[in-house]
Specification:
Distance between the termini: 17 Å
Number of domains: 1
Oligomer: single chain
Number of strands: 0
Shape: elongated
Radius of gyration: 18 Å
Length: about 160
């Protein structure tokens, strides 16, 4: 059965730009949560976390450019179809695939790059003063960003 683009709810022509914009909204939440807790340590941790997130978003955007150039389109469905017809982009762009994976780990504050939280110095990073449902909301946002970045990684390099 041939692949049809009509079966999708949303088929944006600028899908990659939309995902980059949505993933960068988390920076505002981190910075405002550190500021709103009215603690200088939480605010410093928030600035530290925002600086790390912004620096790796630049590398993610620059790594996505060769994928866009190889597919010739910003549409995610077109990128998947291009990889199905020719070759997965992880093979010709193998170094970029590895660097993108490392950038995702740093962007989402996973184990080798979780310095933004720095439990030994700052107790829990920017969410020192939060507990209960607000603390759960921070982790819900963090894990949804992990899911979004993982899905983007699979779509861009492994044909969706």
């Amino acid at each position: 059965m041939p692949f049809s683009t009509k079966s999708f709810v949303s088929n944006l022509n600028i899908g990659i730009l939309y995902l980059l914009i949505v993933s960068s909204f988390g920076i505002y939440g981190i910075l405002l949560s550190g500021w709103a807790s009215n603690s200088k340590y939480a605010f410093l941790a928030a600035i530290r976390s925002v600086a790390q997130a912004i620096s790796y978003e630049v590398s993610i955007a620059l790594i996505i450019l060769p994928v866009i150039l190889m597919s010739g389109n910003l549409n995610l469905i077109h990128i998947v179809l291009m990889q199905e017809s020719i070759v997965w982009f992880c093979f010709p762009l193998f170094p970029l695939c590895i660097i993108f994976f490392i950038s995702i780990l740093a962007e989402t504050n996973r184990t080798p790059y979780d310095l933004a939280e720095a439990e030994a110095e700052l107790v829990a990073g920017y969410n020192i003063e939060y507990s209960g449902i607000l603390f759960a909301a921070f982790f819900l946002g963090e894990y949804s960003n992990i899911f979004l970045m993982s899905a983007l990684y699979v779509v861009l390099f492994f044909s969706g």
